[in-house]
Design goal:
Elements lengths: L20 H17 L3 H10 L3 H6 L1 H4 L4 H14 L5
Helix pairs in contact: 1-2
Amino acid sequence: MKSLQGIRVIPYICGGTKLNKQYIFFAYLIESYADYKGVEAYEIMKVLDEKNLTDFVYQMYDMYHAEAIENAFMDMDSLIATGKPAW
């Protein structure tokens, strides 16, 4: 899995504008899931966008950030395969 060290710069990407915790976690989740699947993050985003799931995954912040990341991966696998969450 990629180091979290690179994640520290994310809050300051947009001209010094601090991004919210939900966005930072979403970026981390997508990067981590891509690493888990052995693909690039843009490929995960492309699939989520094509299936209209990006906003759903983004809105799952409260659930995903409180659980083991593997639970979010399992849910994303189910979402991509069936359009439904694993729960």
